[in-house]
Automatic annotation (TrEMBL):
<dbReference type="InterPro" id="IPR045275">
    <property type="entry name" value="MscS_archaea/bacteria_type"/>
</dbReference>
<dbReference type="InterPro" id="IPR023408">
    <property type="entry name" value="MscS_beta-dom_sf"/>
</dbReference>
<keyword id="KW-1133">Transmembrane helix</keyword>
<dbReference type="InterPro" id="IPR006685">
    <property type="entry name" value="MscS_channel_2nd"/>
</dbReference>
<dbReference type="Pfam" id="PF00924">
    <property type="entry name" value="MS_channel_2nd"/>
</dbReference>
<dbReference type="GO" id="GO:0016020">
    <property type="term" value="C:membrane"/>
</dbReference>
<dbReference type="GO" id="GO:0008381">
    <property type="term" value="F:mechanosensitive monoatomic ion channel activity"/>
</dbReference>
<keyword id="KW-0472">Membrane</keyword>
<feature type="transmembrane region" description="Helical">
    <location>
        <begin position="12"/>
        <end position="31"/>
    </location>
</feature>
<feature type="domain" description="Mechanosensitive ion channel MscS">
    <location>
        <begin position="95"/>
        <end position="160"/>
    </location>
</feature>
<keyword id="KW-0812">Transmembrane</keyword>
<feature type="transmembrane region" description="Helical">
    <location>
        <begin position="52"/>
        <end position="72"/>
    </location>
</feature>
<feature type="transmembrane region" description="Helical">
    <location>
        <begin position="78"/>
        <end position="108"/>
    </location>
</feature>
<dbReference type="InterPro" id="IPR010920">
    <property type="entry name" value="LSM_dom_sf"/>
</dbReference>
<protein>
    <recommendedName>
        <fullName>Mechanosensitive ion channel MscS domain-containing protein</fullName>
    </recommendedName>
</protein>
Length: 300
């Protein structure tokens, strides 16, 4: 039995229901964006759940609302249903696939809003997610939209450090340090080993105190590599070290670097840690450009 008495009544009510569901989701999104105490990941899940419920509710009223559907002879209704189902399947196969993949991504939870990721060669910050796609802003300030089906079928590299037991400094230290940070590939570990280690320990404790003060549960990490000529290498490394110290206040923690390969030039990997992924979007390119100026200079 249909939910409404006539097709016209069904059409009017379905339009009203559709508009009502649309504005309900808009209001929920508006409220979620204004609430600061809820984490972005939880906000996204709440909005996703309401959109899913709204879509299923609208589909139910659309199928069960029209009384004319009940007066069609069974043999014709089967034929019509099959034809319509086939047409809908072809027309919405990609949409439905993205929709299902969106649900799986929500359940698996491989990334949160603001995380730094590498998906299909696009490395950047997750700016938004929806039932059908995600939006990434790359470090070249390009907005890239990737369908959920493509996301799920591609390797996902998440460079964000999810802190566990952050109150304990030594556990915090183990989570954010790379093995290279304490190994023999460091460029600044020479006769001043003990002094440098003590300074870095103090800086790390200050960073830990900042994380506790701001009550952050994640740290955003970004790495990139550059090649430095052998000529005046030590002098350039000293200048790079000074540049990294200048960016401590910008990134919350001074960038680190180490050697990872020797060839006709020396390959050096840089690593930036920050509490705000937007700082990487704003200042990473400028930092890299200043590094290039040091590497390419021929001054003594």
């Amino acid at each position: 039995m249909a939910l409404f008495r006539t097709d016209l009544e069904a059409l009017i009510y379905i339009i009203i229901i559709g508009v009502g569901l649309y504005f309900t989701n808009w209001i929920i999104s508006f409220i979620m964006d204004r609430i600061k105490r809820i984490l972005p990941n939880n906000k996204n899940k709440i909005k996703f759940t309401f959109r899913l419920i709204s879509s299923l509710a609208f589909l139910y009223f659309l199928i069960e609302g029209f009384p004319s559907f009940t007066t069609i002879p069974s043999e014709y209704s089967i034929l019509i249903t099959g034809a319509v189902s086939t047409a809908i399947a072809f027309a919405t196969s990609e949409i439905f696939s993205n929709f299902i993949c969106g649900i799986l991504i929500w359940l698996i939870d491989p990334f949160d809003m603001g995380d730094i990721v590498d998906i299909m060669g696009h490395k950047g910050v997750i700016k938004s997610t929806s039932l059908t796609k995600i939006t990434i802003e790359t470090f070249d300030r390009i907005i890239v939209q990737i369908s959920n089906s493509d996301v799920l079928s591609s390797p996902i590299l998440n460079y964000t450090i999810k802190l566990k037991g952050k109150k304990n400094f030594f556990r915090f230290k183990r989570q954010i340090q790379f093995p290279q940070d304490i190994g023999h590939t460091r460029l600044d570990m020479d006769i001043y080993n003990d002094e440098i280690r003590k300074k870095e320990e103090i800086e790390l404790r200050d960073f830990h105190n900042l994380v506790m003060e701001k009550d952050r549960s994640e740290i955003f990490s970004f790495t990139f590599s550059m090649r430095i000529p052998y000529k005046r290498f030590r002098i350039k490394v000293d200048k790079i070290e000074e540049l990294c110290k200048e960016y401590k206040d910008i990134f919350d923690y001074s960038p680190k670097f180490h050697i990872f390969n020797f060839s006709n030039e020396i390959s050096v990997k840089f690593r930036i840690l920050t509490l705000d992924s937007d700082k990487l979007l704003k200042h990473k390119a400028e930092f890299a450009n200043n590094l290039y100026k040091i590497i390419l200079t021929n001054e003594v």
